[in-house]
Specification:
The complex is a heterodimer. Chain A is an alpha/beta fold. Chain A is built from twelve helices and twelve strands. Chain B has a five-stranded parallel beta sheet, with helices on both faces. The chains are: A alpha/beta, B alpha/beta. Chain A: Pfam families: Transket_pyr.
Chain lengths: 297, 233
């Protein structure tokens, strides 16, 4: 099975053949996947070098001329470093584009904190109108990337990860998927957290919703899932509690409790593997079961 | 936004009066007018864009990157009929489209929303690439920066890339009123030249010199015009 990033390169290369509005903008990272596409479409596969402010500025400029830009690099350098460009060169100009990140939170633990951006989704939450997709499998990444490319002039963030579930689910962009139903609460597993969550809640009487689009947040799905017990657990592969406000908004008219699990703010300052990192952050199945069980009444 | 009461026959001599509608002053010092001649000559003699064609795909683009002090820019746009002069008196007011930094969503003819320095040149690079990808290679992209604005590192990402790529349809004007805190004589053009741009340095008040610098051939290279005006005091 290919990775989400490999799927990104192959799918978007094909989309470039079909849609003359699309252009890919890179800052060195990820360029190898677009070698053939760059040969076929030299004007629409653009590598600006290690220049991330320019990466986003060029994306905004392309959009101003009617193109639909697809920008890609690691989340640290796509959202955090050029954040003012994301804010001003897209939203403030009244144009949109597709931002596709990799290595968001813990994909490369041996690379350390410089290559981690667990706050990316929270940062985009400070801006208006961003759709945020978090696929949990390469097949889901393909579905969501195709949807993002075709989403008119919307601004869309697609958060790819090296962390993946074992099998794809039959997802619909924008909707939560009910994976199992129970009575003691609702656990929302985001993207690659699903497998770990399902292991963690084995034998617990809870509903599990699978979220691969977190903005807009599928409030109606949560409301119809919540039943009589207003307990919600979020398990997000980025900054803990990022979607707690969205849960509160969805349940504003009824009593509820929210536990937001995710990556803590404090630096772990450990290297190693993804599994070791998840355990170190309290996000492996054992820790998740303990924390979810303690929260549910 | 469409208007029925625009004027299209105003000339350069009308600009001080149009600016007065915004500033309330009869006369304007060098700081307020540092971009006036530079922008006027572009709109009057160089840019292929008109009030009727603000959405035309193949139009030339002028991007005001240095969004501070846009009175001269607004005056030129009003003089060229992009919006009526009656809007000018509202400059900065809650219900006016004319802010102290321009907003492309609100003002006809304004190509980018600016104010934060260092965004215009990267947007211009993207615009030049987008026009080329769309086959609209006749359209020119112009971006105006201030000399102090070049302090922002984002410009240097754009200058280096555009020079290396030889983006021939990209043009920059740097209005040099010696306002950068740390500067070196000749340093502005040298920075562009080092990355492969065509450069010209002229008196930013001399309309004929500006016109000649704007229209100088620069095959295979982007072009920058450094327009020197009175030093900011």
């Amino acid at each position: 099975m290919d990775t989400m990033r490999e799927r990104f390169a192959s799918v978007v290369s094909r989309l470039l053949d079909d849609d003359p509005r699309l252009a890919v903008v890179l800052a060195e990272i990820g360029k190898d996947g677009f070698t053939d596409a760059a040969r076929a479409h030299p004007d629409r596969v653009i590598n600006v070098g290690i220049r991330e402010q320019l990466l986003v500025g060029v994306g905004g400029g392309l959009a101003l001329t009617g193109m639909r830009p697809i920008l890609h690099t690691f989340a640290s350098f796509l959202v955090e470093r050029p954040f003012e460009q994301v804010k001003l060169d897209f939203g403030h100009q009244g144009v949109g584009g597709v931002l596709v990140s990799a290595a968001g939170s813990y994909d490369w633990p041996a690379g350390g904190y410089t290559h981690m951006a667990p706050g990316d989704v929270a940062l985009l939450d400070t801006l208006d109108g961003w759709t945020v997709h978090v696929p949990g499998h390469p097949d889901e990444a393909e579905t969501l990337l195709r949807d993002a490319a075709a989403a008119g002039d919307d601004s869309v963030y697609v958060r790819l990860s090296a962390h993946s579930n074992s099998a794809p689910r039959d997802i619909v962009p924008g909707r939560f998927l009910t994976v199992r139903e129970g009575r003691r609460g609702v656990v929302i597993a985001v993207g690659p957290m699903l497998d770990g969550v399902l292991t963690a809640v084995a034998g617990l009487d809870v509903t599990v919703l699978y979220a691969t689009t977190v903005r807009p947040f599928d409030g109606p799905a949560l409301r119809s899932a919540i039943g009589e017990v207003g307990d919600v657990v979020l398990v997000e592969p980025y900054l803990a509690g990022t979607s707690a406000g969205a849960v509160n908004d969805a349940l504003a008219d009824r009593p509820h409790r929210v536990l937001g699990l995710g990556i803590p703010r404090r630096e772990l300052r450990r290297y190693g593997t993804i599994d070791e990192h998840l355990a170190g952050q309290g996000m492996d199945p054992v820790a998740l079961r303990e924390r979810i069980s303690a929260f549910l009444r | 936004m469409t208007f029925t009461d625009v004027h299209t026959r105003y000339g350069y001599d009308d600009l001080p009066r149009l600016m007065s509608l915004m500033t309330g002053d009869e006369k304007h010092g060098p700081a307020a007018t540092s971009t006036l001649d530079v922008v006027w000559v572009l709109y009057d003699r160089v840019l292929r864009v008109s009030a009727e064609g603000t959405e035309a795909p193949g139009r030339d683009r002028f991007l005001l990157s240095k969004g501070h002090g846009p009175m001269a820019y607004y005056a030129v746009l009003a003089a060229k009929g992009f919006f009526p002069e009656s809007l000018l008196a509202g400059f900065g007011a809650y219900d006016s489209p004319l802010g102290h930094h321009p907003d492309r969503v609100l003002v006809p003819g304004v190509e980018i929303s600016s104010g934060s320095l260092g965004h215009g040149l990267p947007l211009a690079v993207g615009s030049a690439l987008g026009l080329r990808a769309r086959g609209l290679s006749g359209a020119a992209v112009w971006v105006l920066l201030g000399d102090a604005e070049l302090d922002e590192g984002s410009n240097h990402e754009a200058i280096a890339y555009a020079g290396a790529m030889g983006l021939e349809r990209l043009h920059a004007v740097v209005v040099d009123n010696a306002s950068a805190g740390h500067r070196r004589a000749g340093g502005i053009a040298a920075r562009f030249e080092a990355t492969g741009w065509s450069t010209a340095t002229v008196d930013g008040r001399d309309h004929q010199a500006l016109y000649e610098a704007y229209t100088a051939p620069h095959p295979g290279r982007p072009h920058v015009v450094v327009a020197r005006v009175e030093a900011k005091v």
